Amino acid sequence: MVIVKTRMAAGGRVVIPAQYRQALGLKPGDDMIMALEDGEVRILTADSAVRRAQALVRRYVPQGRDLAEELVRERREEAAGG
What we know:
This protein has 82 residues and is of the alpha+beta class. It has helices spanning 18-24, 46-58, 67-79, and strands at 32-37, 40-45. Strand 1 (32-37) and strand 2 (40-45) form a beta hairpin. It is elongated. The relative contact order is 0.08.
């Protein structure tokens, strides 16, 4: 684990050190997710947050079940008046 000391600037701005940005593959304009957990701020890339959400849902969906396909089928049935 690499620990870096930083300081908050005006307006609450905090610089993410270059080595962290490189490790996460972050570029200017990229979306990030910030979470406050147990008094700590965690920063996730948008892709990482999506993967975490998918893994969480996957624990509750039986293998072989395709939720996206079920949703498409339901919407088509609704559109057809069924």
